[in-house]
TrEMBL record:
<dbReference type="InterPro" id="IPR002123">
    <property type="entry name" value="Plipid/glycerol_acylTrfase"/>
</dbReference>
<feature type="transmembrane region" description="Helical">
    <location>
        <begin position="7"/>
        <end position="26"/>
    </location>
</feature>
<comment type="pathway">
    <text>Phospholipid metabolism; CDP-diacylglycerol biosynthesis; CDP-diacylglycerol from sn-glycerol 3-phosphate: step 2/3.</text>
</comment>
<keyword id="KW-0812">Transmembrane</keyword>
<dbReference type="InterPro" id="IPR004552">
    <property type="entry name" value="AGP_acyltrans"/>
</dbReference>
<feature type="domain" description="Phospholipid/glycerol acyltransferase">
    <location>
        <begin position="68"/>
        <end position="183"/>
    </location>
</feature>
<dbReference type="Pfam" id="PF01553">
    <property type="entry name" value="Acyltransferase"/>
</dbReference>
<keyword id="KW-0472">Membrane</keyword>
<comment type="similarity">
    <text>Belongs to the 1-acyl-sn-glycerol-3-phosphate acyltransferase family.</text>
</comment>
<keyword id="KW-0808">Transferase</keyword>
<keyword id="KW-1133">Transmembrane helix</keyword>
<keyword id="KW-0012">Acyltransferase</keyword>
<protein>
    <recommendedName>
        <fullName>1-acyl-sn-glycerol-3-phosphate acyltransferase</fullName>
        <ecNumber>2.3.1.51</ecNumber>
    </recommendedName>
</protein>
<keyword id="KW-0443">Lipid metabolism</keyword>
<keyword id="KW-1208">Phospholipid metabolism</keyword>
<keyword id="KW-0594">Phospholipid biosynthesis</keyword>
<dbReference type="GO" id="GO:0003841">
    <property type="term" value="F:1-acylglycerol-3-phosphate O-acyltransferase activity"/>
</dbReference>
Amino acid sequence: MLYCLRMLLMSLHFMIAGVLGVLLGICRPFNPDNSRLCARLYALPAMWLLRLRVTTQVDSLRNKPSSCVIIANHQSNYDLFVFGNVVPYRTVCIGKKSLKWVPLFGQLFWLAGNVLIDRGNPQKARRSMLTTTHTLQHEETSIWVFPEGTRNLGESLLPFKKGAFQMAIAAGVPIVPVCVSTYVKQMKLTRWNSGDILIRSLAPIPTAGLTMDDMPRLMEKCREQMVECITAMDQALQKPEGKPAPAL
């Protein structure tokens, strides 16, 4: 019963947030800070409805360089609400072109200045990547990417795609890894308190002076750091039932 009520309220919230987000986008179309505001619009009520307790340690994200590539692990559609709490100032996201057809959310995503990539068309995808490189170099805007390319559904971190790292090296901007604990299989939406989630950002990883030949080593370094961080957070959450989440 509680689960059904939550899903009903979440559906209503998703529609209301979509309408408000589209109105914001119409008032200031393609403003790169629309994404942060819309992310909060989705995340804050959702965390209250879902009763998920999120503990964050994201100083390196909050104090990030003016332009950087942010990479994060991608577990489920709930990431929209979980990560929405920590999206920093002037940060846009890369998503697949098909998102644009999702009612309200797709239009909001586009008006928020996010980048839509046609993954089935390599030439268009390459042009989009060149546009994002220009954005990183000249517009003091950061780009949030899920380098796994798809949801891992709470399993181990999937192999990384090259796009985020190509952008960072081409623009010469740092990479800021952001990790969320493995929550998708642990949250219990049939309970009043659904579970605990930890989010931690890691120190920026510089790319200045690197070439595309350095990309495999850079990808491996980022993935290793994120796997280590996620493992540590998961271990911290292995606690007796009913106790609060530990501080990071």
